[in-house]
Design a protein that fits this description.
Layout (H helix, E strand, L loop, with lengths): L9 E6 L5 H13 L3 E6 L9 H8 L17 H4 L6 E7 L1 H9 L5 H7 L5 E5 L3 H5 L1 H12 L3 E2 L3 E4 L5 E5 L3 H12 L8 E6 L4 E4 L2 E3 L6 H12 L3 E6 L11 E4 L3 H11 L5 E4 L6 E3 L18 E3 L3 H6 L6 E8 L3 H12 L3 E6 H4 L4 E8 L2 E9 H16 L1
Parallel strand pairs: 1-2, 1-3, 3-4, 4-5, 8-11, 8-13, 11-12, 13-16, 16-17
Antiparallel strand pairs: 6-7, 9-10, 14-15, 17-18, 18-19
Helix pairs in contact: 1-2, 1-8, 4-7, 9-14
């Protein structure tokens, strides 16, 4: 049940001359927080934008700039520094440095390291839009892609020069996501997975509704990790406070009925269906056209039962592998076992609703034909990775 998703890695982080170098400080902080170790190598130009002292303090390792640095015993820093690295990431990667990489130049420590490496190379381009769009840069990028270099970005947006366009370096969180994706084993490559997430809101009138306190965090974590594992993810989501991850296809469905329609519309060629959205079991029989005004002492609202999305998907003539979630407040495992039986699904994930809803962490038990597996409390991304690793073993 161990997942390689959250293993710490040793990264060599190259920093070249560009204003985006200030974002690299935050990237190092995020990488260290995730348990990775970071060795920084800067070009001389990079030191004009951010100091080696700053990056040394954040990484906890000495920063190297010069090929002739005497701190490396055998005067071969390009070999000594690159060999222990699991990957090299150059962020920001300037247009000049990209040109060096494409043509195999080795005229400073960082370019020599990249040429002498035995590990994967990832680059995060950063330059103004004219430099990015220049045919020579585009040719160089094309060459790097042919050479199996991984490209992270660039992004489009407002640039330091005041122009707007392609060429911005990705934000540190997106770079972290790119690194995690790179290191995640592609267990679900070629699989199509539909995930529902978040809460539905059943409208009583134009401004009020019946909902629940689901944040969407667990569903979004599953969508993010499944994407990192190489799956084509379709996300049908309701209301959520969490930030929606980048997936292949995303659709908003605010009510139980809208979610039912959206799932049924996209379920046809899916290999897996993960129903984690907190869908309302009931909705108002009538939704008022105008705001209901305060009048009587009490107000009675008639509710009708909503369709059961998971049960109906499981009943399809050729159903995908169905995974359900049971968020219970008491007799958690008992209710989850019953739910798995009633809906006739192969796998259910049981959790304590009052601890899981809205929280960053979760503690779950996986129940399938082969037994019950309790996962210890962890952040929702780690839990997602373990659920999906288990799913992979079941699919095979």
């Amino acid at each position: 049940m161990n997942s390689a998703h959250s293993q710490p890695h040793h990264l060599l982080l190259g920093v070249t001359g560009g204003i985006a170098a200030y974002k690299t400080a935050e990237l190092i902080r995020l990488l260290i927080k995730q348990g990775h170790s970071v060795q920084v190598v800067m070009t001389e130009a990079a030191t004009h934008f951010i100091t080696p002292t700053t990056l040394q303090a954040l990484s906890g390792n000495p920063v190297f700039i010069d090929s002739w640095d005497t701190r490396i015993a055998n005067a071969m820093p390009h070999i000594e520094l690159s060999r222990p690295a699991d990957a090299i990431l150059v962020a920001p990667a300037s247009a000049d440095f990209i040109a060096k990489l494409a043509h195999g130049f080795a005229n400073d420590l960082l370019s020599t390291l990249c040429l002498a490496r035995e590990c994967p190379l990832l680059i995060a381009p950063a330059m103004n839009k004219q430099m990015w769009e220049n045919p020579s840069t585009q040719r160089n990028i094309e060459q790097l892609l042919k050479d199996q270099v991984t490209l992270l970005g660039p992004d489009s947006g407002e640039q330091a020069c005041g122009e707007v366009g392609q060429g911005r370096m990705l934000e540190p969180e997106m770079l972290l996501h790119g690194i995690q994706t790179h290191f995640t084993p592609k267990l679900l490559a070629g699989k199509k997975i539909l995930i529902t997430a978040g809460a539905t809101m059943e409208m009583l009138d134009p401004v009020r509704g019946i909902t629940n306190i689901s944040s969407g965090k667990m569903g979004f974590a599953l969508a993010k990790v499944a994407t990192q594992m190489g799956a084509e993810v379709t996300l049908v989501h309701g209301h959520a406070t969490a930030v929606r991850p980048e997936v292949s296809h995303a659709y908003f469905a605010g009510t139980a009925n809208a979610m039912y329609q959206s799932v049924m519309q996209h379920i046809a060629d899916q290999d897996v269906f993960i129903a984690i959205a907190a869908v309302a079991d009931y909705s108002p029989l009538v939704s008022a056209e105008q705001k209901i005004k305060k009048s009587e002492e009490s107000l009675t609202i008639q509710l009708k039962r909503n369709k059961d999305i998971l049960a109906d998907v499981a009943k399809l003539p050729n159903p995908p592998y169905c995974v359900g979630f049971a968020a219970e407040t008491e007799h958690v495992l008992q209710h989850a076992r019953q739910k798995r039986q009633d809906k006739n699904i192969p796998l259910i994930v049981a959790n304590q609703a009052n601890l899981a809803l809205g929280s960053d962490n979760n503690s779950v038990t996986l129940i399938d034909d082969s037994g019950e597996y309790a996962l210890e409390t962890a952040d929702k991304t780690s839990i997602a990775a373990k659920i999906l690793s288990h799913l992979h073993s079941q699919l095979n």
